[in-house]
Each structure stands twice: as C-alpha cells, then as structure tokens.
Amino acid sequence: MSKAKKMTICGLCIAIGCVLPTFFHMFGLGQAFSPLHFPALLCGLVCGPWYGLACGVLNPILCSLLTSMPPVARLGYLIPEIACYGLFAGLFFFMLQKRSGDHTLRNIYCALVPALLIGKIVGGIFRAVMFTGGTYTVKLWATSFFVESLPGIVVQLITIPLVYLALKKAKLI
User: Fold this and answer.
1) Contact 38/149 with Cβ under 8 angstroms?
2) Is residue 40 a contact partner of residue 159, using CB atoms and an 8 Å limit?
3) Residues in contact with 79: Cβ distance below 8 Å, sequence separation at least 6, in sequence order
4) Alpha helices of 27-74 — where are they, by DSSP H?
5) Would you say 88 and 44 are in contact if contact means Cβ atoms under 8 Å apart?
6) What is the mean pLDDT of the chain?
7) What letter would DSSP give residue 172?
8) Of all helices (H) and strands (E), which one includes residue 79?
9) Which parts of the chain sit beneath pLDDT 70?
10) Around Cβ 82, how many Cβ atoms within 10 Å?
C-alpha cells in the first residue's frame, strides 16, 4: 500500500475517532463501548504500527479539543493506552503477516488481543501515576480497565476483524 493511501486511511480513522464517540455518548454508551479505541486498532491493522501510533495519539487530543470528550484530565492515561493499541495491533499483525504471508482471521485476533492487553496495562500504569484520589489498587485497575469496558472489548473483537475483512474483500486495502 502506498504512503499516500496509508496517510489517507489514517486521516479517515482520525476523523472517525472524532465522530464515533460523539454518537455513542449521545446514547450514554461512550464509557462502556470505548469508541475512541476502535479507529486506532483498525488503523494499526490496516496501515501499520507507526500510523496506528499516530492515530492513537492524535485521536484523543483532537476529539478532546473538538468535542470536550474525553475530558483533558483523562488524556494523560488515554493517549498512552490508545497509542499502544494502534502501535501493537499494527506491529503484531505485520509480524504475523510476514511469518505466515496471509491476512487470516487468526492473525487479526493474534494481533488484537495482545494489543488490547498491553494497552490496558500501559493505561493502568499511567492512571496509577496520575491517580490522586487515594490508593490505586489492582482491583480498581481491573474493574475500570476490564470489567467496565468489557462490552467495548467484545464489540471491538467482533467488529474490527469484520471491518478489516470487508475492506480487504472490497479491495480497498
């Protein structure tokens, strides 16, 4: 894929990252479904790790500036978390493609699952550093990063591979 096409897709993912959360927040579903994570993960798979990283850094910043969501106070842990999603989804997928030479559903999941885990761990570390309301425990981290966001994780694990495969089948990527 050409650099221009990757830049265009990355820009589209960033634009989606500004619109999608607004739609989810209109119905009170923003926190549970984590719509800001979706574009960075998809961008990493489609365009590669560096574009996924750029999307993961720029999405929360632009979305916050344009819509005040997420609040500026949350950017300190959201940016590293979402940046890790894009970076590691792209990195793991690239490594798997290079090794196996295909774009199978298995490779997509083998890239998404560890990227999500790494992003959650990094986000938790940054949140622990920023946390000033008392003691930040493993239980609080697990609750906020896994239990409360479980619907979003499930939706991401269902929709991102389907979108990727649909784009591939339509020969758009």
Assistant:
1) no
2) no
3) 56, 57, 60, 61
4) 30-33, 37-47, 49-67
5) yes
6) 87
7) -
8) helix 75-100
9) 29-32, 103, 132-134, 136, 140-141, 145-147
10) 31
